[in-house]
């Protein structure tokens, strides 16, 4: 035992304590994954060393094959993992093994319900990592030294997983990390060669460097124990370099968990090798679930970049557009230089053409998923639909393709679920319908009952119902799909084109003519509040409605801009009334100008309320309405 100096006891960050608790109590049915996590970390550590050694070969400290060793001691009930990767300094150990650096972790932890079943799903969004060692161990010791530091600058970290850990400086001759798990009572089954070998095969076969276990050897009685021999138990070749046909689904899945630090299987993947002017391999995955930090600006995104099989960087963001930031995977290029930097990636024209090819691969993969596994695609859309909606604005070239992947709620569904594709919408459109109709609003309940839909309901025309915050903005980038233009049914002068018969059009014209006088009277009464007053063709049940001017900002956009402190140009709505509604007939017959004005204002305010807008002067509305009510009751 080497000398320990500078001994300290430190507390875990609160989030670590919570995670440890959750892990120990919710992952007991799949304990063996601790080995996968520790091997995954060792492999990352070796990748980092290989990369840093490109510019500082002395870090390799004389060579030695890079590898991971897993051993055990049945009597002491320990399992030990050793790697000769990058290692950790004392500070590294304190931060990496005592805190969780991901932004938003505290918020995430607040969402834990205490219900172990539910929480164990949440852990999937988080990834389990190093702390999973405590599922099987009641004491974990880490001995490490960072490559490049002196042999006297090793670190010994140890913890019982109960809120604190001890840290000391030690001598460690070899660079890298050794982790000793002291197994809990009842977990001795893991101190077994056969068991460990099976777990490694099952979860870590894809790891690209050798994982060695002690060779099973029987010492004959009376003989001296033979020197320890080791044997490689995994395939130890980079998975993406193998031909597609030779890789099993389980291998793809385990590889995903390793690179994505995810606990669940992916929904889908696409593995390709490109040869020709550019040469690269890519393996791209669609996760099954959104990570908790999908909307955090600093959240990890991008692919793992390798150059000729050598790991170069994590989170290389230049290979996919932002709206596909949830995609995980690996790209291995033969054309880039090993000392490529993020800055170079941003400018390199090679990257641009790789980016557009990879983007297309992802969109194709999603199209396939939508077509072949519609149920899974529903799940995908629930998790990532909001992010996909950023697509048309960001990626002009693929606008049509992205539009085809969008899913909407519609008047033809009854629960507000976003399941209708544009292709489906068009396939069941009315004969002669050459537009895609939609309505935006705050909530599904509000748009579903909007008076703007009355004429569509009457004619059985489907309208898409858009209530996500991003929707109005999205629609400002989508003008058409499959040659059909989008029409906001709350905007401008609704023209149903071929969907109105000649008779209907003629009748509408006649009514408009007959009501010219009423239009003028209302205009005079409402004055500055409206930009225009006209007879409506879109109402069957409601007396009046407010339409947005063709060029004006919609309510959602206005609210978003206002919330961000921007000055929003004032726009006045168009007041449309339903000439056959009894209230309007009453208004038409009203002789008293004051009463006419009150009634017109009430109708105007009600139309605003029905559209989900707030009133400019609610008190005036209430007092006018009350005045009418009093008159009614006498
Ligand atoms: P993740 O792998 O997602 O980063 P982990 O909880 O698995 O999270 O590991 C936490 C961190 O601890 C790693 O990011 C790494 O910095 C450090 N670490 C863990 N194991 C090793 C190791 N064998 N060698 C070097 N560093 C390690
Ligand atoms: Mg890890």
UniProtKB/TrEMBL annotation:
Binding-site list for ATP: 37, 41, 83, 88, 102-104, 125-130, 177, 342
Subcellular location: Cytoplasm
Entry-linked InterPro entries: HATPase_C_sf, HATPase_dom, Heat_shock_protein_90_CS, HSP90_C, Hsp90_fam, Hsp90_N, Ribosomal_Su5_D2-typ_SF
Region (C): 560-634
SUPFAM superfamilies named among the record's database cross-references: ATPase domain of HSP90 chaperone/DNA topoisomerase II/histidine kinase (SSF55874), HSP90 C-terminal domain (SSF110942), Ribosomal protein S5 domain 2-like (SSF54211)
Stretches the record annotates as A: 1-342
One CC-aspect GO term: cytoplasm
Molecular functions (GO terms): ATP binding; ATP hydrolysis activity; ATP-dependent protein folding chaperone; unfolded protein binding
UniProtKB keywords: ATP-binding, Chaperone, Cytoplasm, Nucleotide-binding, Stress response
Main location class: cytoplasm
Pfam families, alphabetized: HATPase_c_3, HSP90
Zinc-finger recorded as keyword: no
Domain Histidine kinase/HSP90-like ATPase: 30-187
HAMAP family for this protein: HSP90
Task of the protein: Molecular chaperone. Has ATPase activity.
PANTHER family: HEAT SHOCK PROTEIN 90 FAMILY MEMBER
Subunit and partners: Homodimer.
NCBIfam families, sorted: PRK05218.1
Family listed: Belongs to the heat shock protein 90 family.
Entry protein name: Chaperone protein HtpG
Organism: Pseudomonas nabeulensis
Lineage: Bacteria, Pseudomonadati, Pseudomonadota, Gammaproteobacteria, Pseudomonadales
């Amino acid at each position: 035992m080497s000398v320990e100096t500078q001994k300290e006891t430190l507390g875990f960050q609160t989030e670590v304590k919570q995670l440890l608790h959750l892990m120990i109590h919710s992952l007991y049915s799949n304990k063996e994954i601790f080995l996968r996590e520790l091997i995954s970390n060792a492999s990352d550590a070796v990748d980092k060393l290989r990369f840093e050694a490109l510019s500082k070969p002395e870090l390799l400290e004389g060579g030695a094959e890079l590898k991971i060793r897993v051993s055990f001691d049945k009597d002491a009930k320990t399992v030990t993992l050793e790697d000769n990767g990058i290692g950790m300094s004392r500070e590294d150990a304190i931060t990496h093994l005592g805190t969780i650096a991901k932004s938003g972790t505290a918020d995430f932890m607040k969402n834990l319900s205490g219900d172990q079943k539910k929480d164990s799903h949440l852990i999937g969004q988080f990834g389990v990592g190093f702390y999973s060692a405590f599922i099987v161990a009641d004491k974990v010791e880490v001995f490490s030294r960072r490559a490049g530091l002196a042999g006297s600058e090793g670190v010994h970290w140890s913890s019982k997983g109960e809120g604190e850990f001890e840290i000391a400086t030690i001598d460690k001759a070899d660079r890298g990390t050794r982790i000793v798990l002291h197994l809990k009572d009842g977990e001795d089954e893991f101190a077994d060669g056969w068991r460990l070998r099976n777990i490694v095969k099952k979860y870590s076969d894809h790891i690209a460097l050798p994982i060695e276990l002690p060779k099973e050897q029987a010492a004959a009685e009376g003989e001296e124990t033979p020197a320890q021999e080791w044997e490689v138990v995994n395939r130890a070749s980079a998975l993406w370099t193998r031909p597609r046909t030779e890789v099993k689904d389980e291998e793809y899945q385990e590889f995903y968990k390793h690179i994505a630090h995810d606990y669940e299987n992916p929904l889908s993947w696409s593995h390709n090798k490109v040869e020709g002017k550019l040469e690269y391999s890519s393996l791209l995955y669609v996760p099954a679930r959104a990570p908790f930090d999908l909307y955090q600006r600093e959240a990890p995104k991008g692919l793992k970049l390798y150059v000729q099989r050598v790991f170069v960087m994590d989170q290389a963001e230049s290979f996919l557009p932002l709206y596909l930031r949830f995609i995980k995977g690996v790209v291995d290029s033969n054309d880039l230089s090993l000392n490529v930097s993020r800055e170079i990636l941003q400018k390199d024209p090679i990257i641009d053409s790789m980016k557009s090819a990879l983007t297309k691969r992802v969109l194709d993969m999603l199209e396939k998923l939508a077509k072949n596994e519609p149920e899974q695609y529903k799940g995908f859309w629930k998790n990532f639909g909001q992010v996909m909606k950023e697509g048309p604005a960001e990626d002009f070239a693929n606008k049509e393709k992205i539009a085809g992947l969008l899913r909407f709620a519609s008047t033809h569904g009854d629960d507000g679920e976003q399941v209708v594709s544009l292709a489906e919408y068009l396939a069941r459109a009315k004969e002669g319908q050459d537009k895609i109709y939609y309505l935006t609003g705050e909530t599904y309940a509000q748009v579903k009952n909007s008076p703007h839909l009355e004429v569509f309901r009457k004619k059985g025309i489907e309208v898409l119902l858009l209530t996500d915050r991003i929707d109005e903005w999205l629609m400002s980038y989508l003008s058409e799909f499959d040659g059909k233009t989008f029409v906001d049914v709350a905007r401008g002068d609704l023209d149903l084109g071929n969907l109105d018969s000649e008779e209907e059009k003629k009748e509408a014209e006649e009514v408009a003519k007959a009501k010219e006088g009423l239009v003028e009277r209302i205009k005079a009464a409402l004055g500055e509040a409206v930009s225009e007053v006209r007879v409506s063709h879109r109402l069957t049940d409601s007396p009046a409605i407010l339409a947005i001017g063709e060029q004006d900002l919609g309510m959602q956009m206005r609210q978003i801009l206002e919330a961000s402190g921007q000055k929003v140009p004032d726009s006045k709505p168009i007041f449309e009334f339903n000439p056959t509604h009894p209230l309007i007939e009453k208004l038409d017959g009203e002789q008293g100008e004051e009463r006419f004005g009150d009634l017109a204002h009430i109708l105007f305010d009600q139309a605003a309320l029905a559209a989900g807008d707030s009133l400019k002067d609610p008190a005036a509305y209430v007092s006018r309405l009350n005045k009418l009510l009093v008159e009614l009751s006498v």
